[in-house]
Amino acid sequence: MTDTVEALILDLLEWIGPESRPYAEVIDAWRTSCPRLPVWEEANQRGFLEHRHEPGRGTCLSVSALGREHLRAARPNHGIHQTSTKGS
Fold first, then answer.
1. Half-sphere CA count of 4, side-chain side, radius 13 A
2. Do residues 71 and 81 make contact, with C-beta atoms less than 8 angstroms apart?
3. Tens digit of pLDDT for each residue in 46-84?
4. How far is CA 68 from CA 4, 16, 17, 28, 31, in A?
5. Exposure of 23 by Cβ count < 10 A (0-12 exposed, 13-18 middle, 19+ buried)?
């Protein structure tokens, strides 16, 4: 994987943040047709994103535990590392 794609995957994980975002919002901002920048596809394939249905919001995406760990290892000073307590 290129350094560019790796950096963009980390940017995607940071952009999603600690809470979930609607699928349509994420895909609108991050889908690309460029085969050299498969950011969305690569993040999904690596298991860095979780997909789930939220009542009233539809399909939402959040950063998985694996994604948080990957981000923590690459960018240790970023604030997403906390697990959301919303709804707990």
1. 5
2. yes
3. 999 999 999 999 999 999 999 999 999 999 887 664 444
4. 19, 11, 9, 22, 21
5. middle
Longest Cα separation, the chain:
40
Answer whether 31's CB lies under 8 Å from 40's CB.
yes
Decide: 2 and 35 in contact? Cβ < 8 Å: no
> How far separated are the first and last CA of the chain, in Å rounded?
37
Shortest CA distance to 26 belongs to which of 71, 61, 66, 74?
Answer: 61
Tell me if 40 sits within 8 A of 33, measured CB to CB.
Answer: no
At 45 the three-state DSSP class reads: helix
Q: What is the DSSP letter of 49?
A: E
